[in-house]
Backbone:
């Protein structure tokens, strides 16, 4: 098991890479029966765990006995190459990483479900192979009822509208067919003027940075107070006593006590997408989902798949 509060980044990268390519993501999204979606195939061009450049703020107590994992040196060694490439600093904790994913389109809450599984892998609660199991909809047509990740850190970072995405699976930024107008480009002050957007962004950054610095100093100060050895011993004893209860982290500011962790594939299964579509259609007065799609002009499953592939 990974020490609580720490993540196995290498395992998360292994799991993230399994999302790449074209897959059926019905087990990694929330089904919206009102839309009567029948094609859950989406193509992910890139999927990775990336260290954020120059974002680490040192909290030395995390490397002290009782706080740091036993394999801290190994973690440093495994992350040194990626740290050098991304501008991160070796040996400085906590580190900040983000889940980078680029795809042709996404389903409802797809990213939050993908991240939830990555967090389970990072905490050692699941193996990276769980991603492959969830993507195998022939064997697993119904989604296990796991909790999706917190919404707060989720950011739509960029969009491109290439003239012909099907001609290039890479879809680089220069392929964009739109001419974008950026905030500040057409204003009298520009981006860097007295009332430009950079001035507003700086004020927001400074406010958050001061909160970070003060909170970090408080953490470091409290960690040095009292009898640390006694505190660590009590923490170890308490952890052993409640070993049956697992604290699961899902991207928010704290964890969630979940009792004995059963494993994703052993969780209660939700109704399949087809079953949810049929139930919704009958509730609206139709015979079934197919009847609803026919009467309301929804695309057939084949037409929907053809359109999605054409859009890609």
Residues:
């Amino acid at each position: 098991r990974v020490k609580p509060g720490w993540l196995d980044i290498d395992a998360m990268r292994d799991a993230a890479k399994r999302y790449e390519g074209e897959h059926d993501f019905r087990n990694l999204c929330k089904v919206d029966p009102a839309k009567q979606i029948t094609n859950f195939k989406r193509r992910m061009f890139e999927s990775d765990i990336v260290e954020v450049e120059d974002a680490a703020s040192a909290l030395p107590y995390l490397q002290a006995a009782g706080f740091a994992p036993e394999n801290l040196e190994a973690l440093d060694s495994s992350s040194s190459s990626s740290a050098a490439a991304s501008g991160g600093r070796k040996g400085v904790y906590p580190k900040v990483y983000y889940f980078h994913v680029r795809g042709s389109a996404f389903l409802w809450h797809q990213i939050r479900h993908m991240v939830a599984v990555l967090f389970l892998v990072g905490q050692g609660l699941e193996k990276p192979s769980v991603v492959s199991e969830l993507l195998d909809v022939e064997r697993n047509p119904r989604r296990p009822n796991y909790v999706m990740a917190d919404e707060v850190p989720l950011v739509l970072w960029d969009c491109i509208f290439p003239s012909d995405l099907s001609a290039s699976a890479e879809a680089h930024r220069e392929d964009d067919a739109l001419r974008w107008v950026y905030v500040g480009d057409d204003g009298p002050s520009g981006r860097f003027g007295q009332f430009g957007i950079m001035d507003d962004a700086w004020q927001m950054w400074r406010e958050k940075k001061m909160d970070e610095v003060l909170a970090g100093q408080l953490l470091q100060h409290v960690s040095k107070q009292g009898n640390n050895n006694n505190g660590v011993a009590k923490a170890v004893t308490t952890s052993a006593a409640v070993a049956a209860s697992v604290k699961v982290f899902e991207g928010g500011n704290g964890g969630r006590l979940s009792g004995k962790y059963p494993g994703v594939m052993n969780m209660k299964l939700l109704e399949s997408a087809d079953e949810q579509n049929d139930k919704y259609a009958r509730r609206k007065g139709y015979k079934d989902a197919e009847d609803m799609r026919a009467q309301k002009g929804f695309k057939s499953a084949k037409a929907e798949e053809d359109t999605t592939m054409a859009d890609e």
The radius of gyration is 23 Å. Residues 34 and 280 are 7 Å apart (CA to CA). The longest strand covers residues 41-51. Confidence is low (pLDDT under 50) at residues 306-312.
